[in-house]
Amino acid sequence: MKKVSTLGVMLTMAGAAHAQTSVTLYGLIDTAIAYQTNQIAATNAAGRATRAGNAVSIAPGFFNGSRFGILGNEDLGGGTSAVFRLEAGFAPDTGVSLQGGRLFGRQAWVGLNADYGQITFGRQYSVPFDILLPFDTIGWGNTGASDVWVQLLEGSRMDNSLKYQQNIGPLKIEAAYTFGEFAGGASAGSIYSAGVNYTSGPMVLGAVGQQARDPNSNKQSNAGVGAAYTLGKVTLHGYYLYTRRDGAFAPSASQDFVPTYGTNAQFYANPGVTNIGSSTAPRTDHVFQIGTTYQATQAWVLKAAFLYDAARQVNAAGENGTKLAAFLIGDYFFSKRTDTYLATSYNRVGATMNGPYAGRNNSLGVFLGMRHRF
Length: 374
Known about the structure:
Keywords: Cell outer membrane, Ion transport, Membrane, Porin, Signal, Transmembrane, Transmembrane beta strand, Transport. There is one protein chain. By secondary structure, the protein is mostly beta strands. The protein has a single domain (2-373), classed as Beta Barrel (Porin). Helix content is 6%, strand content 55%. A 16-stranded antiparallel beta barrel has the order 2-4-5-6-7-8-9-10-11-12-13-14-15-16-17-18.
């Protein structure tokens, strides 16, 4: 990160001799050469896969979405600061903006930080995303072989959000409310959530709950718990996430969920899917991940993890489904800011959930990547 002091400019413009303002410019680029099996090779007029094949490409990185951002802080006196963050995501292979082409699609918020905590307003990470992050082996990775699947269930970012954060000794407390902004009903499109992390020496524990309503007041509910423990060079990670969605749940544009079943206009727009159809019954997902990080040397880090999702009422026929994912990573750090890695991943899904792999039920991926922070 590079800090740019704007103190002199602010003193001149605002005439506030006591104010101290700083702006941090930062970013991260993560990209990889990727080999993946069972990718869509051709489609018919209806958009359904007619041929699958293996693919080699320059792809977004395995670990992180690439981004650049601006973080600001102004001392208002009395222990209170004004804070803001603007963060844009982009594809490192093409340079195009991500998050639907938004200018600041990753984060865009402003607020106040004081002894009583921090209150912020705008597009922000969800509370489940923040609270469960320490328990995920690769920190909500950037590949469908690991954690993107979970982010679809609990949502990574929410528009129109009011968020509160506070640290009290070993406790980190978060709560948020997302305004649906639909006329005629305050609850339509809204989300409320709360969670806590507890840190004691080498151990971290966490718990979180969230409920979302779509524009028609159908509900999605999440609950999650996690734990991490460090013993010497080894850290053990694990979490459990429960999700229940009403059969008709259809998130609004401001809710960063992707429906896990529905019509072609929703998640099953993927042309590889063979089991299209809306379920009228609530769908439930029970997601587990266990993993470990081994700090072999100051430069070498090894990671391994296993993820399993047991889903119920996956499609219109009321069938159940499963997803299994595993990955193994070797990561070498040239410095604190630059590393290179070799990651392997394997996905396997039940027949009712075979959409992501061009109509097949599995995919193997190998990623040779490089990551740089600035």
